Structures are given as structure tokens and as C-alpha cells.
Fold:
Amino acid sequence: MLEFLTDRLRKALLHINLRLVYELRVRANKPLVVNYGGKYIYLGPCGLTAHKEEALLSDVAEIEAILCRASEYSVYSVTEQLRQGFLTGAGGERIGLAGVFVYEDGSSFTVKDVTSLNIRVPHEVIGCGQEIYRQCFSDKLRSMLLISSPGRGKTTILRDLARLLCADGIRNVLVNDERNEISASYRNFSLDTGLFSDVIRFSYKRDALTAAVRAMRPDVIVTDELVSCEEVEAVSACVRGGVEVIASAHCRDLENLRQSPIFASALRERVFERYVVLSSEGIGRVQGIYDATLCSVGGVC
Structure:
């Protein structure tokens, strides 16, 4: 994990518990910041520090070195990821990029002159989806949308739900891992998505979901963030075709979901039988579970 970091950053991280490192923010000519256990704090040469003056400072050269290592010294091999503004490390780390976006024929082509990195570290928390599984899937398979603000643990919960679905009998679970965050597959390494799971990586949802239904015959598809009407329609097509879908979305709460044009058709057609809202306080905490009409499973609308 985080093998692509420069030596000095890796040495600094040796002083802290990597299991609590969720993000590492590397910005040119600015202090390094770590999301440690859900809270941001500075990273110094000897570990965490509350003082800005003691924090490590990065520069453009270090950012370029990290990108070279993460791409295994072949930036051209990750062009498609760069088009989308991120890069995936060998351990499933998603490296978000900020810099100059270059366009060609009206579409994003690549990112150059990168000045900031947001390195998100995947974590395997066995059992974190147990309560959601009990309330949503103990009686039958159904489609579900998991919503929260960024960084609240959606991907970790999706991974655990895939594993739990496989553990409860032989079910064909298709994991559409668009950014290689759910399975974090790389060579002989991957996080546990269950005994009966199949993983499609680095594919657009519209392609992966169509191919999966036709070729893999899944009982349920687990996929990450829905960000467009096109992706929601691809999910709707799967559900109409008899394949349940468990997905996530960036959305603060139910009111924002109701107002989102992206999910208007899904709400109207009742594509998802369950909506799970994570709390903005802490990570992985369930604030509420709601049915297709957005009424609480406990009975309150």
C-alpha cells in the first residue's frame, strides 16, 4: 500500500497507524495534510502534528515523482484514467488530480502541470455492512442506493455488502469497479469481494452493465458512484431486465436526492427499493433506511 510515495513520505507514515489513514493531501508548496480517522491533521517528518510549521512541504517535483511511480513510469499506459482526473495505485489507492485539464475535440484528453494530489486509501472493514444487509437483504435481493457526502465510507460498505451477498448462499455478484476502488485488484492482490463475485474494472458503467447482463448473468450488480442520467438509466435498464443493482451516489440527504435531476426518473419509476443514507458525522454510520417512496423502513416519511 502507498508504495508509489517518495521515500520521505513513506518514512513519515511509518510513525502512524496506516489503518487510520483515509486520505493524503499533497499540494505543491503547501503543508501535507492527512485524513486520520476522519479528521484532518498535518503530517510532519515524525508523524502527525497539530502545528503547520512542523508539517512537511511538498513541491511540483515530488508530485511528478509520485505520478511517475504510480503509473509505473509509463504515463501513457494510464491515459484513460487521466482523462477522468484520477490515477489508481497498485494497492487500489485512488489518486485524484488537480492541475491543467487539456481538451481535444471537445473532450477531456489529459491532465498536465499537476499541482495537487488527493490520495484516497482503500480500507477493508469486515462486517461494516452487516446492519444494512440485515435490514435490506435478509429476506430477498433488492436494488439499493447508498448515499452520503464524499468520504463517508460508501465504497468500503459496498465492498462488504458484495462479500455478504456471496456468503449467504451461491449468488452471482458482479462488481463493476470503474476506478478499481472496490476490489483494489492488482496482479496477485485484491480486497475480498466475496467467493462468488466477478469483477469488471476500469470500464464505463454504460458498457460494463450492458456487457455484464448479457455475458455474465449476474443476480446482482454492485457498482460505485452514479454521476449522470446516462448511468442511472443504465442501472434502470438492468433492474427492468431482472438484475438487482446496489449502487452509491454523492448526495447529502434525501431532500437533495429529491431535487437531483439525475435521479428524477429513478425516483419516479421506483428503481431502487431501498435508500440508505449515511450520517455526515463519523464514517460508515447509518442515518436512515428508506423504501422506494422515501418513507422510513420504520414507517416515517
